[in-house]
Known about the structure:
single chain, 3 helices
Amino acid sequence: MANIRIGAATMVEKDNKLLLGKRGKEPAYGTLIIPGGGVNEHEDFHDTARREIREEAGIEITNLRQFGTYQIIDPGQQHRVIIYWRADWAGGEPTPSTDLLSAKFYTREEIAAEAAAGNIQGVGLQVLKDAGWLKTH
């Protein structure tokens, strides 16, 4: 492991549904994630959030606001700091990139079913709970 990686991921809402993507690469291939990606050198975090949603899912967003900062630490493998955002859908239809197998807007019930089936894991699961998209028990 050479460096700590910094990323941005955005919870995009449309009609009381949330955009999620099915991851098309390791780690966590095939699980549902909040779309996002790495911050480029000298790139503002807001710009990263907008760019990554456009690149990963093919949509435009508005009303971008920071939600929280989380980390993934897997000693010897990875250390990531991810800034999570909330935004509203502004245009476009979800179209997956090469990093995603699929992308679509999920209802709360669909998100709960996917989480119960083990298809949402790790920090993404915690973010969805903290953001109120999943009930905590």
